Amino acid sequence: MPKKIKYKYADINFNINERDGHWHLDFYYDKKRIRCSTDYIADEKNLKIVKKETIPDIVYGLEGQHIIEVTDKSSKDLTLDEYAQMFFLAYDGTVRDHVFYRNERHYINHIKPYFGNRIITSILPDEIQIWQNQLLKTQYLKNKKLNLYENYSPSSVLKYRSVFFTILERAYKNKKISENPLRFTDRPKPVQQFNEDDETVPLDPFTQRELECIIGHARGYMINFIKIMCGNGLRPGEAVALKWKDINFEKKTIRIQRTRIAGKDGPVKTEKSNRTIDMLPITEEALRNQLLLSGDREYLFYNSENKIFYSHDVIAVNFKRILEASGVKVRVLYNLRHTFASLLISKGADITWVSKTLGHKDISMTLKIYTKPFNEDDDIRFKNIAVLGTIMGTF
Fold first, then answer.
1. How is 23-88 classified by DSSP, letter by letter?
2. CATH for 183
3. What is the pTM assigned to this prediction?
4. Looking at residue 329, which CATH number applies to its domain?
5. What is the residue range of 107's domain?
């Protein structure tokens, strides 16, 4: 979380600073600088309280009356940023915390600099089209030492556009604008890109030989993490969030009921993702080995500093290093999940069981993703051909 946050309320610009583990406020009113502390610990939950309750109370106290809400402003004078503040206040609590924070940052970093001070009714479709084109052409420093630059990808611009669209659509439904100008612009054409949060990660499973090579180059908890992911098809965030109370060696089951993102345990992706799955032998072996490493602590996996993982990002980086060291083609961590499903389906496993284990909403989703052929090593493929030939017999 940033240590200094800028927040505008009732035309007053506040700086919310983290100091001594608590939130402090710094702002100007009537040409005088005012600094004050709060009793709130500097975390995400209390940041919302400071924005929603503390700052409005301060403004009310300074002005001696409730401020005129943005909703009372004429649309002729209403800026996009003024409406966006109201939008995010209403939007808060309707989605998971990390989604809210991510979308708020998208607005602040990529939309507000272009349109924040514009009267909301004056924003034209052509201007939005130009904004999109500029983002696609905008270069940002990726690596200062190597002096490498790259453009925002179409898929990234689509995310910013989605946030912009939602804000304008709410403004339209609240009769602040007569129509949503984004409806009259062309979407950037996306390119296939890795996204480790869902099933849109390009399907590129590992072969059995590659897995053996990868595990041979892994060390410590990474060996067990890899085996658990490809042995039961867990999502990376689900695996990081596992606790020993979720593991039942006697019944050979694993309870999947949370995921870990941005330093917090949250609900799993969908209702079907909240599931109890069978513990396959490869997973049981990895779990028992990991128990020797973690001992009687709450979670299965801890980082090198013996702290709970903030997310699966560090593990993803370690996994990439293992792939590079082993000479195996580099793919994202999520492909271990794809490997589990692709391998079992190619071997004729019950599709219903595979779908339930993955936590898909229905079988059709599983079939849609994993109907592509699984590339086996040639020697394994030849053995499968021989087996299938025996089953078919001779004519």
1. EEEEEEETTEEEEEEEEEESSHHHHHHIIIIIHHHHHHHHHSSPPPPGGGS-TTT-BHHHHHHHHH
2. 1.10.150.130
3. 0.49
4. 1.10.443.10
5. 98-193
In a shared domain, residues 189 and 313: no
Tens-binned pLDDT, residue by residue, of the chain (395 aa) = 557 888 888 778 889 988 878 888 888 877 778 887 777 888 888 888 888 878 877 776 665 544 444 444 555 678 999 899 888 888 877 777 778 888 999 999 999 999 999 999 999 999 999 998 888 875 444 333 333 334 577 878 888 999 999 999 999 988 889 999 999 998 887 544 433 344 556 678 888 888 889 998 888 889 999 998 888 888 888 888 889 999 899 888 999 888 887 777 777 777 778 888 888 888 899 999 988 888 888 888 888 778 888 778 888 888 889 999 888 888 888 888 888 888 888 777 788 888 888 888 778 777 777 765 555 555 655 565 565 455 455 44
Residue among 363, 319, 98 nearest 220 (CA): 319
Let me know: does 150 contact 210? Beta carbons within 8 Å: no
> Cα separation of 234 and 301, whole Å?
14
Q: List 108's β-bridge partners, or say none.
A: none
Work out the angle at residue 36's Cα, subtended by the Cα atoms of residues 35 and 38, and round it to the nearest 5 degrees.
Answer: 150
213 and 359 co-located in one domain = yes
Shared-domain flag, residues 158 and 247: no
Contact partners, residue 338, CB within 8 Å, separation at least 6: 201, 203, 204, 205, 370
Count up the domains in the chain and report the number.
2
For residues 97 and 109, what is the distance between their CA atoms, to the nearest angstrom? 18
36-39-40 Cα angle (round to 5): 110
50 near 61, Cβ under 8 Å?
no
284 and 376 housed in the same domain = yes
CA 37 to chain centre: 33
Q: Which of 147, 168, 193 is the last residue of a domain?
A: 193
Residues 377 and 277 in one domain: yes
Tokens of 101: 């924070």
Residue appearing with tokens 């890899």: 226
Helix (H, G, I), strand (E, B) or coil at 185: coil
Domain identity same for 184 and 219: no
